[in-house]
Amino acid sequence: MSEGSTGIYTKGKPEDVLQRIRTHPFFAGFPERFLPILADCAMPVEFEAGQTIFNTGDLANRLYLIESGEIHLQAEGAEGRMVTLQTLGPGQVLGWSWLFPPHYWRFSAQTVGPVRAIFLYGTRIRELGETDPSFGYPMMKQVAQIVIQRLQDTRERLLKRQLGA
Q: Is 38 domain-assigned?
């Protein structure tokens, strides 16, 4: 086990990491032949309560498959206070800025309690997608689903606020 700059990274068995990727909802329907490639770019990670995973403006090069716990996506509000925009939990994904230039995080992420996840090297996934469209296209579709869902969630929150609910 080694301490990373954020979190504790463990050396899980490759077949365990592969199984954890295979069963995560993000990869439902993803071509099976690419899952071992993703497992080669992955490792388990655990975070403590209140730990910052990344900050706005940091280099975006990671994708996290959340398995347990919750993470707040935050932005700086009035007077420099951090405002929680969304809470992510098990079965969800943290981080897609690694896919889109300029590859910097647009939000900060902080754990609410202990979090268990699979860390994937976003830069490596992006490189694989650029060199192999048969991998890149399905990956882009998976990430696009997250982007669309987050936009829909934001729209619903704005409408509720507009209606005073």
A: yes
What is the domain-level CATH number for residue 17? Answer: 2.60.120.10
Residue 78 has what pLDDT? 85
| pLDDT for the residue numbered 165 | 60
pLDDT of residue 80: 87
pLDDT value at position 13? Answer: 67
Query: Concatenated DSSP letters for 87-116?
Result: EE-TT-EE--TTSSTT-B-SSEEEESS-EE
- H or E element: which one contains 3? strand 2-3
The CA dihedral of 131, 148, 49, 39, to the nearest 10 degrees, is -30
Rounded to the nearest 5 percent, the helix, strand and coil shares of the chain are 40, 30, 30
Residue 162 lies in a domain: no
Q: Does a structural domain hold residue 13?
A: yes
Q: Cα–Cα distance between 53 and 72 in angstroms, integer?
A: 10
Q: Provide the domain limits for residue 77.
A: 2-123+133-157
User: What is the tally of structural domains in the chain?
Assistant: 1
User: In the chain, which residues have pLDDT < 50?
Assistant: 1-5
